[in-house]
Sequence to fold (209 residues):
Amino acid sequence: MARYVGPVCRLCRREGIKLFLKGERCYTEKCAIEKRNLPPGQHGKARKQKLVGYGLQLREKQKVKRIYGVLENQFRRYFEEASRVRGNTGVTLLQSLERRLDNVVYRLGLATSRAQARQLVRHGHFQVNGKKVDIPSYAVRAGDEIAARPKSQKNASIVHAMDEVKGRGIPEWLLFDADKVGGRVSSVPTRDQINLPVQEQLIVELYSK
Fold:
């Protein structure tokens, strides 16, 4: 499974906003954006410039890819699938990414970051509708029940995450169940419920050239 394994704080600095890639650290003064909000590299200060056209579209695409932790080929497949669905392609793209199992685990507060959620899913700590699923990109549907497996409910990482992210809030399209250490997908998220600072239409324009 291909994934980015380099330093993640530089990704936030490159995009100029918090992408919340490092869990708890992103909420402290140690966050790279709080300390020095400049593009990475020795010429970071000189690289700050106003983006237009293609540059702006590219940055929006990179931002979404990095938030969800997917690489180019996989991201393009998501876009192609979204483009075949009737409706707003950009919103459909974000909905598909939000319904990834690793993202749902993160949104439910069972992991401090999407990267940690991906690892926990990969290691078989979660089940969907009572069956173990170890594929981070698994697409959940409305009505699906997601929960930590019985033997994983006392997992230190999951317990710590639940304590750490209590104040973060759970999206309206998910219902959290502390007793089951999981939750349920009540509906497909609407654009208003996907709280991301992105302009998805720019991504559609980029791929439509």
